[in-house]
From TrEMBL:
Protein known as: TetR/AcrR family transcriptional regulator
Entries under Gene3D superfamilies matching the protein: Tetracycline Repressor, domain 2
Domain HTH tetR-type: 26-86
SUPFAM superfamilies: Homeodomain-like, Tetracyclin repressor-like, C-terminal domain
DNA-binding region: 49-68
Protein's organism: Rhizobium mesosinicum
């Protein structure tokens, strides 16, 4: 029979080993999701597959099946990660502004979304796919982003209410659509409908126009 000291050693080893495995799995999952996002951003869905992601992540492809159940599960994980994208890129604070009206809030969100989209190639691809690829995978990613933005707005608005008679859903959809088209056009050709979008001064002009549009509706 094992003495008490030996039993204690075995119990301690058994208690710490699962923690080590959990840490290793967590790191591997992060590496897989990061590799998948980078692959999507660079090459799109055309070359997006289990083997390609595994090579990029430096892991056995069986781990992707084990952790995510396959490619669809991995896309779901990327979609969930988009919620963190909104949290990281669009902070839930006023940024020095006094949010006294719904217009203040929408100005803040519009400018943050413009900046975040400009800086993220994967999110730009997702936006482009929304209007060019009607696939289940694209729908999942688009819905995850839209849901996260809607939740941000709900949390931040508090008691702020838009002006009466304004169709908020329609107006906000047009605001976000204009931002998205502006950023995609700039990435493709450095301009949009004759508006140059190549340097900081150009983008300041665009941001000023965006604020005027938002204020024109919401005051």
């Amino acid at each position: 029979m094992l003495n008490e000291t030996a039993m204690a050693v075995l119990e301690q080893a058994g208690a710490t080993e699962p923690e080590k495995r959990i840490r290793d799995r967590s790191a591997t999952e992060r590496a897989i999701v990061k590799a998948a996002k980078n692959l999507l951003a660079e090459e799109g869905f055309q070359n997006f597959g289990i083997n390609a992601v595994a090579r990029r992540a430096g892991c056995d492809k069986q781990l992707i099946y084990r952790y995510y159940g396959g490619l669809n599960g991995l896309v779901e994980a990327i979609g969930a990660d988009l919620g963190n994208w909104v949290k990281d890129r669009i902070p839930e604070d006023a940024g020095g502004m006094f949010l006294l009206t719904y217009g203040d809030l929408m100005e803040r969100l519009s400018l943050l979304f413009l900046e975040a989209l400009r800086e993220d190639p994967l999110m730009r691809r997702i936006v482009a796919w929304e209007v060019s690829e009607n696939t289940e995978q694209v729908k999942r990613l688009s819905e995850a982003r839209s849901k996260a933005l809607g939740q941000w707005l709900d949390r931040m608005r508090g008691s702020l209410a838009p002006p009466k008679g304004v169709d908020v859903a329609a107006v906000n959809a047009l605001i976000f659509a204009s931002i998205q088209h502006l950023v995609l056009a700039a990435a493709a050709g450095g301009q949009c409908a004759g508006l140059a979008l190549k340097n900081g001064k150009d983008w300041e002009k665009a941001a000023t126009a965006l604020k005027r549009l938002v204020r024109g509706v919401y005051g």
